[in-house]
Each structure stands twice: as C-alpha cells, then as structure tokens.
TrEMBL record:
Family named by the database record: Belongs to the short-chain dehydrogenases/reductases (SDR) family.
Protein name, entry field: Short-chain dehydrogenase/reductase SDR
An annotated Gene Ontology molecular function: oxidoreductase activity
Alphabetically ordered keywords of this record: Oxidoreductase
Gene Ontology cellular component list: membrane
Length: 262
C-alpha cells in the first residue's frame, strides 16, 4: 500500500485540471507537495487553495525545454527526496493527419512523452537506492485506441503506456511501483488548450469534455488506485471502449471510423 501522508509528492501540470485536483486531494491527505507548470500565477492560486499551503512548494517549468536532472535537484531541495512523481503535464490535439505539421507532432511528443520519460529517469535512481517510490503516469483512453483528430496525442499516449509498462517490469524488485492512469472524458480545459494543425490553441470546449467526470472525483479515484498499488486504472464510462477494442476489435474499428469528434 502507498500512503501519501507525510510523503513528498511532485505533480506536473498542477496549475489546472486533473493535476490541480490531485494537488488538493494530496494536500488534504497530508502530503508535502512540489507543484510544476508553466504559469507561476496559477500555481500560486492552487497553493493558496490547498489544505496545507505551508507544505506546498512551487517549481515553475516549461517541460518542452528543460534539464530534468537540474529540475529534479531543485525539487528535492524543498522537502527532500521525491517519494511519488505524478507525470500529469500534457497537451491534446484537434487536427487531421494530413493537415498536421511535423512541428506539432514533435511538440506533442516533447510534452506528453519525452518530458515524463526524462523526469522518471531523474527520480528513478534515488527511488531504487532507497528501495521505495511510486511513479504515476497520466495516460488516456486513447492510449488504447486512436480516434480521429487525435493522431499525435494517441501516439504519444500509446508510447507512454509502453514505456511505463517497461519501467514497472524493470523496477519492481527495487521497490518502485508504477501506476498508469487512463482517464476518459474529464471535465477540464484539455480540449480548450489542445493544439490545432498549425500549433494554435483550439480554444473550444468539446461536448464530451463538458459532460465528463468532475476532475475532483477523478483525482480521488487516482489516489485510491495509488493507495492500492494498482498497476493500471481506466477512469470513466469510456472504459467500455477499451473492453470493446480488446474483445471485439472490428466493432471498435467500425465505431471509431464513424465517431463524431471535433
């Protein structure tokens, strides 16, 4: 069991959405938090809303252009070694394959895949040496199946699934645990902040996102999965799509080809 009370928890993408909600839940549970995102002002807002703001440190960073070892050293300087790393920062996409520039694909992979890889490699030696630690990777239902207008996002999340499965397979003997989280539609600004074919901000709330699960409820489910040392969890009614993909792939393909997405 992983109890986060008194533990040092580093959350990326903590200025909004799932990351923000996870910060509130972890603070209420008694964790010491290091929160990272690009926007200092939004991190300040999140810290002030936490149950124990005195135990919340802010570490602003642009995870598309950073030195992971240096950032890790700065994170450790606040409260000591990182016990739990939550790789949550990411960006979604709203554009077709034919229209999307390679620069957009590379930008998505820098944040959604290479950043969590780099941060995981930075914390893993210390966790292994101490014989304990927990790495949480926020993937997505599209880590199992690709949908229209999400080719880069789906590819990055598929890569996240494969990488963290391998991390788990390599690190379990040293006491390091890995939980992969695959949310469906969660009511956040992920669609508003998604990037288009040219790299511009989408700026629109998707219908599915608008009707999605509350982010705080999602955060509670994630922390429950971490506490139970779950290796993987799919959150939301979209879990059904994962089962269909696995056991009735032709039906899943039929549905995905006709999916109405923006």
């Amino acid at each position: 069991m992983t109890d986060i009370a008194g533990k040092v928890v580093w959350i990326t993408g903590a200025s909004s959405g799932i990351g923000e909600a996870m910060a509130y839940e972890a603070s209420a549970a008694g964790a010491k938090l290091v929160l990272s995102a690009r926007r200092q002002a939004e991190l300040e807002r999140v810290r002030s809303a936490c149950a124990h703001p005195q135990n919340v440190a802010l570490l602003p960073a642009d995870l598309t252009d950073f030195d992971a070892d240096s950032l890790h050293d700065r994170a450790v300087a606040f409260f000591g070694p990182v016990d739990v790393l939550v790789n949550n920062a990411g960006i979604s996409q709203r554009s077709s394959v034919m229209d999307t520039s390679m620069a957009v694909y590379r930008r998505i992979f820098e944040l959604d895949f290479f950043a969590p890889v780099a941060l995981t490699k930075a914390v893993l030696p210390g966790m292994s040496a101490r014989g304990q630690g927990h790495i949480v990777a926020i993937s997505s239902v599209v880590g199992y199946l690709g949908t229209p207008q999400r080719s880069g996002y789906a590819a990055a999340k598929h890569a996240v699934q494969g990488f963290f499965d391998s991390v788990r397979a390599e690190s379990w003997r040293s006491g390091v645990k890995v939980t992969i989280v695959c949310p469906g539609y969660i009511r956040t600004n992920v669609s508003i902040n998604a990037i288009t074919a040219s790299g511009e901000r989408h700026g629109l709330m998707d219908r599915g996102q608008e009707k999605g699960m509350d982010a705080q409820r999602c955060a509670r489910k994630i922390w429950s999965a971490v506490a139970a040392d779950r290796e993987e969890i799919v959150i939301g009614k979209e879990a059904l799509a994962v089962l269909v993909k696995r056991f009735a792939p032709r039906l899943a393909s039929f549905a995905l080809k006709r999916a109405k997405v923006t």
